[in-house]
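Session log. Operator J.P. requested a structure for one protein chain; no other inputs attached. Running the standard single-chain path with token output.
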Amino acid sequence: MKKRNKLYFYPAYFDAEKTRNEGRRVSKKLAIKSPSLEMMAKSAGALGYKFEIEIGKAYPKCWWSPGRLSILNPSEKKGKILIKLTKHLKKLKK
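Structure written below.
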């Protein structure tokens, strides 16, 4: 199996105002309102991940809101990174 060298995360994954069908990937309890790429980047940096912000890319379910975060050379699965980012974003939002 080929190892991926990037994982992609979109703000819609963490947005409490979206439904699962609209792209939210975390539970409603952990989600936050209107997450931004800057907040996601701060969280990724604080957690020690190497990352890039890609402004020109958009989540297909909400194409009108461009931007995504790429985690480079991840050592963990996407689900674990997603939960860690979510918990850190929740702390930043408070």
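Operator note: The longest strand covers residues 51-58.
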